[in-house]
Amino acid sequence: MKFDMGGSAAVLGAAKAIGEIKPPGVEVHFIVAACENMISGTGMRPGDVITASNGKTIEVNNTDAEGRLTLADALVYACNQGVDKIVDLATLTGACVIALGTSMAGIYTPSDELAKEVIAASERSGEKLWRMPLEESYWEMMKSGVADMVNTGGRAGGSITAALFLKQFVSEKVQWMHIDMAGPVWNEKKKSGTGFGVATLVEWVQKNSSS
Questions:
Q1: How far apart are the C-alpha atoms of 94 and 107, rounded to whole Å?
Q2: Is the pLDDT of residue 211 over 70?
Q3: Considering all CA atoms of the chain, what is the largest pairwise distance in Å, rounded to the nearest integer?
Q4: Which domain covers residue 86, as residue numbers?
Q5: Angle (CA) 40 41 44, round 5°
Q6: Per-residue confidence at 142, pLDDT binned at 50, 70, 90?
Q7: What is the pLDDT of residue 38?
Q8: pLDDT tens profile 149-164
Q9: Which of 42, 66, 105, 177 could make an S-S bridge to 109, C-beta 3.0–4.6 Å?
Q10: Angle at the Cα of 81 (from 182 to 90), degrees rounded to 5?
Q11: Averaged pLDDT of the chain
Q12: Average pLDDT over residues 165-181
């Protein structure tokens, strides 16, 4: 869990830093989709169909892909706050680590403008990001016979299909980016988190302020 909560840790770290800096002219919401993850008699099972807060139904075909289910509701909640832009961070897939290694995170967004902003912020912070494709044809792997979608699409393109899953819970009116940071969030030698993502978020928010 010290690894798996890396995305939430980055959000909380950014909240602390931005709260102290107080950049003028920008409103920032920090949302963490925290919940209990212990096994219990009420836990979800393979084959369950659950309904997200936006009404879309999800067939659970992999109970280990549970984080994206809570993140989906967090994205719906964020959109309902009337925000203009959303950046979510999560240690979402091992597939992204296989693709990019442990030194950089993969980013997914349909917005070229937001990609340019966040990549520029990462270059100022020294954190490495690489833009990945949101290949819509891969959505075929996410289709279900009993629900709107399944929660995982298999091994091939696993980081891409995970991002496509999250995209189903974001309003088209909102500029959105997903950062799959499973690689650089953890230092295996030190057995500790790296704090990856905090500096980029702080740089991005400061650049968007009126200062």
A1: 14
A2: no
A3: 52
A4: 6-32+49-208
A5: 80
A6: very high
A7: 85
A8: 999 998 899 999 999 9
A9: 177
A10: 5
A11: 95
A12: 98
- Report d(CA 128, CA 181) in Å as an integer: 10
What CATH number should be reported for the domain holding residue 13? 3.40.630.10
Domain membership flag for residue 39: no
Q: Is 103 inside any structural domain?
A: yes
Q: Which residue has the tokens 């009993």?
A: 146
Q: Let me know: does 10 contact 195? Beta carbons within 8 Å.
A: yes
Q: Which residue matches tokens 């500029």? A: 175
Residue 171 corresponds to which amino acid?
A: S
Residue 162 lies in a domain: yes
Per residue in 101-117, pLDDT (tens digit) is: 999 999 999 999 999 99
Q: How many CB atoms lie within 10 A of CB 87?
A: 24
| φ and ψ at residue 88, rounded to 5 degrees | -105, 150
User: 209: pLDDT confidence band, cut at 50, 70 and 90?
Assistant: confident
Q: How many domains does the chain have?
A: 1
Question: Is 55 within a domain?
Answer: yes
> Three-class SS string for the chain?
CCCCCHHHHHHHHHHHHHHHHCCCCCCCCCCCCCCCCCCCCCCCCCCCEEECCCCCEEECCCCCCCHHHHHHHHHHHHHHCCCCEEEEEECCCHHHHHHHCCCEEEEECCCHHHHHHHHHHHHHHCCEEEECCCCHHHHHHHCCCCCCEECCCCCCCHHHHHHHHHHCCCCCCCEEEEEECCCCCEECCCCEECCCCHHHHHHHHHHHCCC
